[in-house]
Amino acid sequence: RLTREAPPDRRRSGRPAGREVERGARRHATTMDLLAQYSDASGEAGAGDGDTDDDVATTAAMLRAKHAVPDLAPRVNDAGLAVAGEGADARLVSLASTRDMHDPARKKIYYNVKYDALHEPIAGPANPFNPAGASRQTRNHATGHVEWAHVNKHAFDEQFQTFNALGYAVAPDGSAYVGDAAAIAAHAGETVFTSTAAKRRKVRDEVLAAAVAADPGASIGGPGANAPPLARDRSAWAPARDATKPLTVDELTEEAKEYVRWHAARREANLRRKGRLKDEEGGAGGGEDEDGAGVGGGGAGPAGEKSFFHGKEERNYAGESWLAPPKDRKKENDHCYAPKRLIHTWSGHTKGVQAIRFFPRHGHLILSAGMDSKIKIWDVHNTGKCMRTYLGHDKAVKDINFTSDGARFVSSSHDKKIKLWDTETGKVISTFTSGKMAYAAVLHPEKQNILMAAQSDKKIVQYDMNTGDVVQEYDQHLGAVNTVTFVDEGRRFVTTSDDKSMRVWEFGIPVVMKYIADPSMHSMPAVTLSPNQQWLACQSLDNQIMIYSAKDRFRLNTKKRFTGHANGGYACQPNFSPDGRFLMSGDADGKCIFWDWKSRRIFKTLKAHDKVTIGCEWHPLETSKVATCSWDGTIKYWD
């Protein structure tokens, strides 16, 4: 509770304090002085008046003095005067007249000017630095002042068409013409709607005459005719003056000519192979395949094997090939991370993409095998565009693999052919075929001239690419062979088949060294070797990845099973990260799943594609980037 207490001196004595007494005395003295001054002044002014007037004045003065309150406010100049000028020119003028005394050359203002007055247009001569003369206050548009005007649609169309045709029009307010003054005088201000038909024909003839003068050969009668300019055929069926001429082969570029020749030869070869095109002798040309080579030959014909370079130049200013790896790209660290976001998409195949392979050790290029029978190589680091397209297969490409230096690569296709390509020039070095489909084509890690083909006739065929001959055949499987994986530095290799078994072979000896089969096993159409060369990750068709030892005993590691994806019916290629911390694989729903190797738990899941994610590759240098491919025809790059 708040209480107001009296000063301590009043609380003790009950009498006013000493300061109050002094204040009252001073007030009384001031009142007496004022009465004395008033009496003196009234006595001097009214010396000749009577006593009655003196008494009344004295009484009024005493009353005013009794109720007077001291005026403590400063005296206000109510005369309405102001000092104008400076120094010797200073003078007193009325406050109202100062509004007309503003000097633009000085920065001194004699009154409190309003904000609107400061932004009014300057009245006087034109500003040389602002030819338009319109200040920002008068503008309502970036280029000046725009006025609203309500115009009839017919009137607007009339003036709009007149301005486009003749170069002038009437202002919206109807006060004057705007546009070309010479055209206004020539047409007497007529619009396109008010001009007569005769005038319109005259203008049209003048325009046509000017066009014929520019193109003398366009008159009736063709080039060289002596018809007058106005005799030009202007009917509805007259031929166009600038008709596009059909292209001839001689007018094409060299690349276009080469493509036309390749397309014609390929079409002819296909027709001959199908028996629809007869030779002059009357027989169908079915002895040769599409590329012009014999069925068992290792040569390459020019008819069906072509390659097109899509880059700017095949060699740079230093003479380096477009295939050379960039010198500024080096491996930053050995620790890998799971990607989080999509950074690029390559879409050039018209059908699905079956497999992708990064350029060995550098990864600046990525090779893709498409179901549209095309093989493409893409730039990863710079432009992200397709650098070269390789044409030679008739059907979908199944598998591709680089040599150790990346200068060449092999491809197998559903057309039962295996081709060895030169990566830089795109030429086919050799073609191999045994008349059977090769599901996998793998090069020996040490002997780069040895090619292993896993075929549909239950065999593994070993080719010597230098001679083109079949060196060895490994025939023990009971079903089509799906994969060939080299282990132990190329001294052994592991194969899987549709017979739901795994077999280990000594290289060069067609005898099974280890046979692995179990009633609970499923077919394993995709196998990957770990970076430390110790484990084999096998994609089983029962929605799990099985891990086998890559050492002497090749046992199943029962503690390492990776599940959580749905790959039933698809040969989704698994892959390891370069440091071995992650195992990844695609699935039938278009996902890309990453497992932690130690805990076997799913570390991350990416919704990568709309259709099955058939392949995935980890970048060899940039340890957080992954490429995936799908049957939706795209290749995606993740970081």
Can you walk through the features of this model?
The chain is 18% helix and 27% strand. The protein has 639 residues and is α+β, with helices and mostly antiparallel strands. A five-stranded antiparallel beta sheet has the order 5-10-9-8-7, with helices on one face. Strands 6-33-32-31 form a four-stranded antiparallel beta sheet, with no helix packed on it. Strands 11-12-13-14 form a four-stranded antiparallel beta sheet, with no helix packed on it. The longest helix has 28 residues, at 18-45. It is elongated.
Layout of secondary structure:
Layout: H1 8-13, H2 18-45, H3 51-66, E1 81-84, E2 91-94, H4 115-118, H5 153-166, E3 168-170, E4 177-179, H6 181-187, H7 197-214, H8 254-273, E5 306-309, E6 342-346, E7 353-358, E8 365-370, E9 374-379, E10 386-391, E11 397-402, E12 408-413, E13 418-422, E14 428-432, E15 438-443, E16 450-455, E17 460-464, E18 469-474, E19 481-487, E20 492-497, E21 501-506, E22 512-517, E23 526-529, E24 535-540, E25 544-549, E26 556-563, E27 575-576, E28 582-586, E29 591-596, E30 602-607, E31 613-618, E32 626-630, E33 635-638
Antiparallel strand pairs: 1-2, 3-4, 5-10, 6-33, 7-8, 8-9, 9-10, 11-12, 12-13, 13-14, 15-16, 16-17, 17-18, 19-20, 20-21, 21-22, 23-24, 24-25, 25-26, 27-28, 28-29, 29-30, 31-32, 32-33
